[in-house]
């Protein structure tokens, strides 16, 4: 039996991978809408787009963290109010909603991984807006709403940290990278597979609604991620120099600790995402990353 899926934010880093993953499912009929095709801040447009779909995967988001600090109302219109429009449309139509959120809803002051039901407390405007979206899903879709928090997302289809450090490797002998923020680097294709699996289980009633943490297993720092990216790409990881966050002041404060726990996947009968190092090794075989690594290895630096 076919299932009708709608993917919002379909032209972004994660949205493109969700479309690619669903394309491998012969029973999935998929519509992908980017920002030019659906403005989720427009409730009438959201209602029209949602009609006739059984599962909506929301990858649409304001992702500029520092920009959100400068323009909180505009960011929250997308990350909070826009998600409420989607949740309302799903409540009216009976569709399931899989909404992608962030570890930035937490304050970052923990020492152990945050469980799914840990108290929230965002320290920046981006986190506040995303938390508003989460609350809308929980309020309007208590039985059919799924919030999947992710973090440190990277992939070949958009700007991200892994692509940035590989690009800089061709131009700089050394790179200073923050070593006092902890998180879980997550490959966009692996998260896309997890979202598709969750949606399929939710359709059969085998996945409880609520919050799931869609991050890789393990933990590292930005410096650790940069060094492992270099090592796996045939570059010298010692070119990465650890520094404190104070070396790179930003408009929006970043949580120092964004490591998330994964207990709720077991309730849905699904394993958590694999270890971050294994995900990275797989991701770096993508042509876009491989080309950046090849360019960096072939560059003669002073």
What would the average pLDDT be, to the nearest integer?
97
- What is the CATH H-level superfamily of one domain? NAD(P)-binding Rossmann-like Domain
Number of strands: 12
Biggest beta-sheet profile? 6 strands, parallel
What structural class should be given to the helix and strand makeup?
alpha/beta
Keywords:
single chain; 302 residues; alpha/beta; Rossmann fold; six-stranded parallel β-sheet; two-stranded parallel sheet; 12 strands; 16% strand; globular
Verbal overview:
The chain contains eleven helices and twelve strands. By secondary structure, it is α/β, with parallel strands linked by helices. The chain has a domain at 3-158 and 186-216 and 259-274: NAD(P)-binding Rossmann-like Domain (Rossmann fold, 3-Layer(aba) Sandwich). The chain has a six-stranded parallel beta sheet, with helices on both faces. A two-stranded parallel ribbon has the order 6-9. α5 (125-140) links the parallel β4 (96-102) and β5. The longest helix has 22 residues, at 72-93. The mean pLDDT is 97. It holds the Pfam family RmlD_sub_bind. Pathway: Carbohydrate biosynthesis; dTDP-L-rhamnose biosynthesis.
Topology (elements, then pairings):
Blueprint: E1 3-8, H1 13-22, E2 28-33, H2 43-50, E3 55-58, H3 65-70, H4 72-93, E4 96-102, H5 125-140, E5 145-150, E6 153-154, H6 161-169, E7 175-178, E8 182-183, E9 186-187, H7 188-203, E10 210-213, E11 220-221, H8 222-232, E12 240-243, H9 264-267, H10 276-283, H11 287-297
Parallel strand pairs: 1-2, 1-3, 3-4, 4-5, 5-10, 6-9, 7-12
Antiparallel strand pairs: 8-11
GO molecular function: dTDP-4-dehydrorhamnose reductase activity
Enzyme class: oxidoreductase
Keywords: NADP, Oxidoreductase
């Amino acid at each position: 039996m076919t299932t009708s899926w709608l993917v919002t934010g379909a032209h972004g880093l994660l949205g493109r991978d969700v479309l690619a993953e669903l394309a491998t499912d012969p029973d999935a009929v998929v519509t992908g809408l980017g920002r030019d095709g659906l403005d989720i801040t427009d409730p009438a447009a959201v209602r029209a787009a949602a009609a006739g779909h059984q599962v909506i995967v929301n990858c649409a988001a304001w992702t500029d963290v520092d920009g959100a600090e400068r323009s909180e109302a505009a960011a929250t219109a997308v990350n909070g109010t826009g998600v409420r429009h989607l949740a309302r449309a799903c409540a009216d139509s009976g569709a399931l909603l899989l909404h992608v959120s962030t570890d930035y809803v937490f304050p970052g002051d923990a020492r152990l991984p945050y469980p799914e039901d840990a108290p929230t407390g965002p320290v920046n405007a981006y986190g506040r807006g995303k938390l508003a979206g989460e609350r809308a899903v929980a309020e309007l879709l208590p039985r059919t709403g799924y919030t999947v928090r992710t973090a440190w997302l990277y992939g070949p289809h958009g700007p991200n940290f892994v692509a940035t450090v590989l690009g800089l490797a061709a131009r700089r002998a050394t790179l200073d990278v923050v070593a006092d923020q902890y998180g879980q680097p997550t490959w966009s294709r692996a998260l896309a597979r997890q979202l598709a699996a969750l949606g399929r289980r939710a359709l059969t009633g085998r996945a409880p609604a609520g919050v799931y943490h869609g991050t890789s297993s393990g933990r590292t720092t930005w410096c650790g991620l940069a060094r492992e990216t270099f090592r796996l790409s045939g570059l010298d990881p010692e070119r990465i120099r650890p520094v404190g966050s104070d070396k790179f002041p930003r408009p929006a404060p970043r949580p120092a600790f964004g490591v998330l726990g994964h207990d709720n996947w077991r309730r849905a009968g699904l394993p958590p995402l694999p270890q971050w190092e294994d995900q990275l090794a797989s991701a770096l075989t993508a042509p876009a990353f491989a080309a950046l690594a090849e360019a960096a290895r072939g560059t003669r630096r002073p």
